Amino acid sequence: MAPDRATGGPAADDPAADTDRARRALERMCMGNLLANREQRLYFKDRESRFLLVSAGWLLAEAPGRTAEQILGKTDFEIFSEPHARAALEDERRIIATGQAVVEKVERETYSDRPDKWVSTTKLPLRDESGTIVGTYGISRDVTMQIAAERALAHQALHDPVTGLANRFALQDRLTQALLVLERQPGGVALAFVDLDDFKSVNDTCGHDAGDEVLVAAGERLGIAARRGDTVARYGGDAFVLLCPLRREGVDVGTIGRRLVRSLRAPVTLASGSTVAVTGSVGIARSEDAGDDPETLLQCADRAMYDAKAAGGNCLRVFDAGRHTSLPTGRRIRR
Question: Residue 163 above 60 pLDDT?
Answer without folding.
Answer: yes
